[in-house]
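Blinded run. Sample ID left blank on purpose so nobody reads anything into the name before looking at the predicted structure. Input follows.
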Amino acid sequence: MLKKWMLVLFTVALVSCGSADEKVAYWEAQLNNSLSSESTKEDIRNFLKQSGLDYGYIESTKTFVALDKNVENYIVITYNVAINIELDENEKLQRIKVYKD
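Blinded prediction complete.
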């Protein structure tokens, strides 16, 4: 019986990865279409406010962190999409990272 449940959980986990991956692709496209290397700290803050994401700013690393929560739920597994937006020394966009958390 335990083997059957393990097989079911494994199958659900494999099938579940698509939705969160689609959300990662969605946010990558949104960020790339809305922001450029010339985007300022204020531009990024405005984008994040308008997007409705929970976000914060870490002054010491000049990094915005944002979270799209609960993009996918399966039994005991919950996926979020995390976004890190790093700024350079002039407080302009340097790097964007989007990943499933």
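Unblinding after everyone has recorded impressions. Helices lie at 2-34, 41-51.
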